Amino acid sequence: MATAELARVRKSQVEFKSRGVTCRGDLWLPERGAPPYPVVVMAGGWCYVKEIVMPHYAQFFCGEGLAVLMFDYRNLGASDGEPRQHLDPWAQIEDYRNAISFVETVPELDPARIVVWGISYSGGHALIVGAIDRRVRCIVSNIPVVDGHESQRRVHGERRFAQLLQVIAEDRARRYRGEPSGRLPMSAPDPDQVLCTWPFPEVYSAFDAIKRAEAPRHEHWSTIESTELLLTYTVFPYVTRILDTPTLMLVAEGDNITSWDLEIAAFNLIPSPHKELFIIPRTSHMSLYTERQRLEIAATYTARWLREQVLQPTEAAVGRSDGRRGAARQRGAEAGRRSRG
């Protein structure tokens, strides 16, 4: 397999319309293989822009011969849309689906081999898109948010969660009066003193470093209404619709941000026999952003899984043979623990 350092790609900037709003992204075509290429459609999590983490994964995917489209949702990064930094999960899911419509028009891409990939908030989006859009060939969900209300209740604790609900209620009253939604930090260096959506100092330090090094368009705040919408968000009514779509979920052992027990519960409800759960050992949610070794474990595992699913379509259509299952188990043993659905 080509490594991230060796992958060579042809890059272009692209744009597409999503319900009248222009979304912008980066299209990477691999030099390995021949068109039409299978394509991985990638978008990010809470307040992400396309330069956060995704290009590192994309190098591995292009190294296998897959194309990649990384894009910014409306209201974020290079994309148009107002209000800025407003995160509506269903508008983002619509942007995903229109990104799929866009790649169907690109001659170098294969519309029969479209993968949706997401991480954190978009890890949940990928599950929903894969459940409701039959154009999706495969789903990759990394450390997903699967239940916004329960995740927020856990990370804030009883007293702080009550304060968050009060801030949201006051913001709703302001919006009713015609005022814009207020701002809420994504995270803070001292979340005991500063109310924020994801109250972890390591989230703040990781994204601050990424912004400085790779993603200058990242803004570390959202509208308060975005967090209100997060509290209504859940993948559970949708995962039961994933009947036959191959699905890979990657979970960080002991993840206390998006709650690995909730993630595994969502995985267990997917009825598709073509599903796989990879629990990355000794890994936190944020180490998949800050520790290159952990990211490479996840990216390598995903690239190999995608190779089996979309670059070897005959085998993928009938299910992997016992020999391939044994090989996959061996790889899992080498990289970490894994449970198969």
Structure characteristics:
12 helices, 341 residues, single chain, Rossmann fold, globular, nine-stranded mixed sheet
Account of the protein in words:
- Helix content is 42%, strand content 21%.
- The protein is built from 12 helices and 11 strands.
- It is of the alpha/beta class and 341 residues long.
- The relative contact order is 0.14.
First and last CA, distance:
26 Å
The helix tally amounts to: 12
Number of individual domains = 1
Number of strands: 11
Q: Using the coordinates above, name the CATH class.
A: Alpha Beta
In helices, the fraction of residues equals 40-55%
Give the spatial strand order of the biggest sheet.
1-2-4-3-5-6-9-10-11
- Overall mean pLDDT: 91
Structural class: alpha/beta
Q: Radius of gyration from the CA trace? A: 19 Å
Task: Determine the strand fraction and express it as a percent band.
Answer: 15-25%
The CATH topology corresponds to Rossmann fold
Give the CATH architecture.
3-Layer(aba) Sandwich
Outline:
The chain has 341 residues and is of the alpha/beta class.
How is this fold's topology laid out?
Blueprint: E1 9-18, E2 21-30, E3 37-43, H1 54-63, E4 67-71, H2 89-103, E5 109-119, H3 121-132, E6 136-142, H4 148-176, E7 183-185, H5 201-213, E8 221-223, H6 224-230, H7 236-239, E9 247-252, H8 260-268, E10 275-280, H9 287-290, H10 292-311, H11 313-318, H12 322-335, E11 338-340
Parallel strand pairs: 3-4, 3-5, 5-6, 6-9, 9-10
Antiparallel strand pairs: 1-2, 2-4, 7-8, 10-11
